[in-house]
Amino acid sequence: MRCSYIRLLVNDFEACFRFYSDVLHLPVLWGDETGRYAEFDVESGTRLAINQREVMAEALETDTADPALPHQDRLAVVFQVDDVDATAAKLVADGARQVMEPRNWTAWGVRAAHFRDPDGYLLEINQPLVRDIGA
Prior knowledge:
The chain is α+β, with helices and mostly antiparallel strands. 21% of the residues lie in helices and 38% in strands. Strands 2-3-4-1-5-8-7-6 form an 8-stranded mixed beta sheet. The mean pLDDT is 86. Residues 2-128 form the VOC domain. This is VOC family protein.
């Protein structure tokens, strides 16, 4: 596994976008302040991304007001793998708590599965979706 993103799940996307782009002067690799997702260059193999918090809650079918997870999903650590299905099966067999089985997230361009560590932090494993060149 290779850590490909640190994704901050933010409440005020526009303000956070301006902070990382205008205050920290991180080059924007994808997105803009009117969106719900953006990526920034942090001069390493890992990217910093910001994501509107509700987007992940909707995707994982969770509730940001869930009292069982009062501070849920403020951060996601994203690992790129060669085979999401095989890696997810191995993680489950080794005792990882899976919260979303592997599925294609076509809007995101990845196949991904989601897990929580023992403290409840969100982990994503993903691989790029192969696009049909003839399509």
